[in-house]
Amino acid sequence: MSFKVLVVDDSPTVRAIIKRTLTLTGVKCDETFEAGNGTEALEVLRRGVVDLMVTDLNMPEMSGTELIEQMCADPQLRDIPTIVVSTEGSKTLLDRLYQDGVSACIRKPFTPEQFNEVVHSVLEQSHESSD
Q1: Cβ–Cβ under 8 Å, residues 25 and 116
Q2: pLDDT at 131 over 70
Q3: What is the dihedral of CA 123, 2, 48, 56, to 10 degrees?
Q4: Does the residue 90 lie in any domain?
Q5: What is the spatial distance between Cα 11 and Cα 69, in angstroms, rounded to a whole number?
Q6: How confident is the model at residue 128 (pLDDT cuts 50, 70, 90)?
Q7: Residue 26 lies in a domain
Q8: What is the DSSP string of 35-47?
Q9: N or C: which end of the chain has fewer CB within 10 A?
Q10: Which domain range does residue 41 map to?
Q11: Is 131 among the domain residues?
Q12: Is pLDDT of 38 > 80?
């Protein structure tokens, strides 16, 4: 199975690292889209089907938290599996993100092994729930 992935981070370097790490995980990506903030991400999400979103939280213009809230309120976007990759570690914030439908959270810096495990777990869960 092949996937369309959206990578959202205000740092082009981090987006490149995440895309490279996705390749190393063996996840087959039909397309990989990029966005530098939540506003750009919503534009991509509303243009077409995205199978997985990987997003940072701390970004200008629209944060990842605001992006997730917008997605949660939109019936067309709320079920897109979302992985948060961030330096944020507040239990209160993470609990709220999980309540809003986030599939998993990874703390920066991460290892390729951690990323691999989380991505495969999220895609597996997503595939099972769509059957």
Answers
A1: yes
A2: no
A3: 50
A4: yes
A5: 22
A6: low
A7: yes
A8: ESSHHHHHHHHHH
A9: C
A10: 3-126
A11: no
A12: yes
